[in-house]
Amino acid sequence: MQGETKEKFGLLLGLVGIICFSLTLPTTSIAVEYFGTTVVGLGRTVVAAIIVALVLIVRKEKLPSLQQFKSLLIVAVGAVLGFPLLTSWAMESLPVSHGAVELALLPLATTGFAMLRAGEIPSLKFWFSSIIGSLAVVIYALHLGFGQLQFADLALLGAVIILGLSYAEGGRLSKELGSWQVIAWAIMIGAPFFIIPVLFSLSADMLNAPLYAWISFIYLAVVSQFLAYVAWYSGMAMGGIAKVSQIQYLQPFLMILFATLFLDENITLFTIVIALIVVFSVIVGKNAPVIQKETAVSEK
């Protein structure tokens, strides 16, 4: 696959991943009401681990190296433990639109860690588009009256930081280990530690949860925790971590759209205007040059 075609396909896979991720907060908001923070935050990984284990066994995948295992620990802490648990806790008290706005800071977090972990050097044009996109979502947050931070806000900000590191590390590792293998092994690393807390959090009342709550939990376990990461890490491996991370700017507005469809939250004209600004910043960022440190050194 040629470089330009590979990059475009990587961006497409990244978009598929973001669409899948955009349903995470709405489905979490639904599921956590009936199953609680621990079951939703950690139980999704236990369920995903069953599917992943079968895939790894059937494909006879070899174990990661020690160095790869260290990177997988970073992915597991962010994507498997921290983000699901923190967002599940936050969604008990915050509306989806609130969480969606704060998660819009993910592109900057991912890009920053990409520079540290993957050796990518974004251009000034790229940073300018990122700042414009971030300012847009900050203005949006202030307009909605979310200027005062609560403990749930701090949880979401913590989730952004550790998931940004996890995204960057997973995207870098995907180039050598394989995209789906990264999240698969991260799930297998985390799941054994989650079984006991999940078992202690189960109750008979959960069996009476409505069908839509069960569908939400299954979606979180199968799609949000595994399949979406396959598309996302594949996209970053093919299109570049920093460039593909720009697509994350669409995520808060896709979340709000899904929240409107499934949770009856309203979309205002101001939201649409901010969405257009953010989409423009994504387009600018997508076309901005991003080089590798190794390339920069060799050209000197």
From TrEMBL:
Q: Which residues form the EamA domain?
A: 9-139, 151-284
Q: How does it sit in the membrane?
A: Multi-pass membrane protein
Keyword Membrane found: yes
Transmembrane in keyword set = yes
Entries under InterPro entries matching the protein: AA-Vitamin_Transporters, EamA_dom, EmrE-like
Judging by the UniProt lineage, the source's domain of life is Bacteria
Query: Can you tell me where the transmembrane regions are?
Result: 41-59, 71-90, 96-114, 126-143, 180-200, 212-235, 269-285
The protein's predominant localisation is membrane
From the Swiss-Prot or TrEMBL record, state where the protein is found: Endomembrane system
Q: Which keywords appear in this protein's UniProt record, sorted alphabetically?
A: Membrane, Transmembrane, Transmembrane helix
Family label? Belongs to the EamA transporter family.
Question: Sorted alphabetically, which PANTHER family does this protein's record hold?
Answer: EAMA DOMAIN-CONTAINING PROTEIN, INNER MEMBRANE TRANSPORTER
What is the recorded name of this protein?
Answer: DMT family transporter
- Native organism is Aquibacillus rhizosphaerae
